[in-house]
Amino acid sequence: MSRVGKRPIEIPAGVKVEYEPPVVTVSGPRATLKREIHPKVNLNIEGAVITVTPVDDSRDARALWGLTRSLVYNMVAGVSTGFTRVLEVIGVGYRAEAKEQAIHFALGYSHPIHFPLPDGITAEVDKQNRITLTGADKELLGLTAARIRALRKPEPYKGKGVKYAEEVILRKVGKAGAR
User: Fold this and answer.
1) Helix, strand, coil proportions of the chain in percent (round to 5)?
2) Nearest 5°: phi and psi at 62?
3) What is the mean pLDDT of the chain?
4) Over 105-120, what HEC string results?
5) What pLDDT sits at residue 118?
6) Most buried by CB count within 10 Å: which residue of 8, 85, 100, 118?
7) How many whole angstroms separate alpha carbon 177 and alpha carbon 179?
8) pLDDT single digits (tens) 91-128
9) N- to C-terminal Cα distance for the chain?
10) Nearest to 152 by CA among 176, 177, 131
């Protein structure tokens, strides 16, 4: 039995959930999200509660049970409150600037980097080194944050690069020097 899958999902006020197999559509004040649900899992919408049940007792159905519940819960939470991911740009001369639907970076390369943001993701830059990404789709938000981090991963000696705000960079000791 899935501990995650057994928990019901409560639908907050202002959120509308429609399920026409195999597609579930969740719309709310922030956005409208659609996702295809695997046929080995059923969604039951009764009033303001969604329950997820496996079709049979196979290993695949049980594995998809908790996953599907988490995905649907993230859709409901995303359209009602949204998600946020914070990145920090660390290094002398490293900076970011948000313009329209893109972020412009100076990350120590010989050229500036223009990073277009996908639809549904917005960015705010504080003090040229703290980027706050917000969006309704948790999966797309995490993917966008990972792609921005991959532009210049933090290095272990000085810690320069783009990192998540909660990430801790394990620092290495440099050369001891000639004696």
Assistant:
1) 20, 35, 40
2) -70, -35
3) 91
4) EECCCCCCEEEECCCC
5) 94
6) 85
7) 6
8) 999 999 999 899 999 999 999 999 999 999 999 999 88
9) 63
10) 131
Residues paired with residue 97 on neighbouring β-strands, in sequence order: 104
Counting residues of the chain whose pLDDT is more than 70, the rounded percentage is 97
Beta bridge partners of 115: 103
Tally helices (H) and strands (E) across the chain.
3, 13
Q: How far is 62 from 146, CA to CA, in rounded Å?
A: 29
pLDDT computed for residue 161 by the predictor: 94
DSSP state of 159: -
- Rounded Cα–Cα distance for residues 32 and 135 (Å): 11
How far, in Å, CA of 37 to CA of 61, rounded?
Answer: 12
Domains and CATH numbers, the chain: 3-80 (3.90.930.12), 83-164 (3.90.930.12)
**pLDDT single digits (tens) 50-82:** 999 999 989 999 899 999 999 999 999 999 999
pLDDT at residue number 149: 95
Residue whose structure tokens are 């549904």: 120
